[in-house]
Design a protein that fits this description.
The chain has ten helices and seven strands. It has about 250 residues and is an alpha/beta fold. The chain has a domain of about 170 residues: Vaccinia Virus protein VP39 (Rossmann fold, 3-Layer(aba) Sandwich). A seven-stranded mixed β-sheet has the order 3-2-1-4-5-7-6, with helices on both faces. S-adenosylmethionine binds next to strand 2 and helix 7.
C-alpha cells in the first residue's frame, strides 16, 4: 500500500501561550511535525493510535503530553531524569524529550515492537536523552539500575490510579514526583490513590483538573510526591497490581 504523506500540524502558538504560558521554538515545531509524520505513517501498518487528524493529534497527544509537565516547562534550571511507564507510541515521553533535550528519559513499555518504534523514532529525531526499554513496570521496579533513580515519572492511559502508583512510586527518588495523566478524577480515584500512597511511601501533592483547549475534553493530572523509600514488597509480582489493586 502506498504511503500518504500526513498533512501539516497546526502551529497553535496562541493556544500554547494562553494555556501553558509557553511556546515551542521553530526547531521544536519541526520535531513535532516529524514525530506526527512518523506515527501516522507507521500507523498504516502497525496500530499505534486512533488519533491521527492534525488538530486531534495536536490536542490529545502533543498538548496533553506537555500539559502534565506545565510546571517544568519554563522553570527547571537543571537536567532531570524521567521515566515514562507504558509509553506506547512514546506518549507523553517523546513530546517531553523534544522540549527537554537536556533531560534523561527512560521510555518503557512491555510490548517489544512499540519499544523498537520508540527507540528508532528517538534516533531519527536525534533525541539524545532517550533510552527506550522493553520491560514490565513490576520487574523494572526491582532492578537496582532503575529503582529509586528518577526525579519524575509519567504514566498515561495505562491503568487505574492505584495501579499506576504502584508501578511508578518505586522508581522515584525520595522527593521525586509522579504524574498520573487521567480523564476525569473521581472521588473513588482519590480514595484509592490515598490508600495506595500510604502503602508506597508517597502523598498526593495535588490534583489539577482542566479541559483540553480545542474540544473541551475533561482531563486531570494527579501529582504524587514520594516522601519515604518504598517498601521492597512493591511493586508486587507481574499481574498482581492489576488483579488486586491497593
Ligand atoms: N502512554 C501511551 C499513550 O498515552 O498513548 C500508551 C497507552 S496504551 C493504552 C498502554 C500501554 O501500557 C500499552 O502500550 C501497554 O503495552 C503498556 N503497559 C501496560 N501494562 C504495563 C506494565 N505493567 N509495564 C509496562 N508497560 C505496560
Amino acid at each position: 500500500m502506498a504511503e500518504t504523506t500526513p498533512p501539516l500540524l497546526p502551529q497553535m502558538l496562541d493556544q500554547w501561550q494562553s494555556t501553558l504560558g509557553w511556546q515551542p521554538t521553530e526547531a521544536q515545531q519541526q520535531l513535532f511535525q516529524r514525530l506526527y509524520q512518523t506515527i501516522v505513517i507507521t500507523n498504516q501498518s502497525f496500530n499505534l493510535t486512533r488519533i491521527t487528524e492534525p488538530n486531534d493529534f495536536w490536542e490529545k497527544h502533543l498538548w496533553d503530553s506537555l500539559r502534565g509537565i506545565q510546571a517544568w516547562l519554563t522553570t527547571d534550571p537543571k537536567s532531570l531524569s524521567l521515566v515514562d511507564i507504558g509509553t506506547g507510541a512514546g506518549l507523553p515521553g517523546l513530546p517531553i524529550a523534544i522540549v527537554k533535550p537536556d533531560w534523561q528519559l527512560t521510555l518503557v513499555d512491555s510490548t517489544r515492537k512499540k519499544v523498537k518504534f520508540v527507540q528508532q523514532t528517538a534516533e531519527d529525531l536525534e533525541l539524545k536523552g532517550v533510552n527506550a526499554l522493553s520491560d514490565r513496570a513490576e520487574q523494572l521496579g526491582h532492578s537496582k539500575y532503575y529503582r529509586a533513580q528518577y526525579d519524575l515519572a509519567t504514566i498515561r492511559a495505562v491503568s487505574k490510579p492505584s495501579v499506576c502508583a504502584e508501578y511508578v512510586l518505586p522508581l522515584l527518588k525520595v522527593g521525586g514526583t509522579a504524574i498520573l495523566y487521567r480523564g476525569q478524577w473521581t472521588d473513588e480515584d482519590a480514595q484509592a490513590c490515598e490508600r495506595a500512597m500510604a502503602e508506597l511511601g508517597g502523598k498526593v501533592d495535588r490534583v489539577e483538573t482542566f479541559e483540553t483547549p480545542l474540544t473541551n475534553g475533561a482531563r486531570s493530572c494527579a501529582y504524587l510526591k514520594k516522601i519515604t523509600p518504598t517498601s521492597t514488597d512493591y511493586p508486587r509480582a507481574v499481574g498482581l497490581p492489576t488483579q488486586k489493586p491497593l
